[in-house]
Amino acid sequence: MVSKMFDSLNDAINDVFCNSVIITGRRPIGGGDINDAYELRLSNGDHVFMKSNSASRLSFFTAEVRGLEAIRSTGKIGTPEALAVGTDSSVGAFLLLKFIESGPRISDYWETFGHELAAMHQVKQEAYGFYEDNFIGATPQKNDSRPTFLEFFRDMRLKPQFDMADHYFSSGDRKQIEKLLSNMDRYYIEPDHPSLVHGDLWSGNHMTGSDGKAWIIDPAAYVGHPEADLAMTELFGRCPQTFYDAYEEVAPLQPGYEKRRDFYNLYQLLNHLNLFGRSYLSSVRRILNSV
Question: Is the pTM of this model over 0.85?
Answer without folding.
Answer: yes
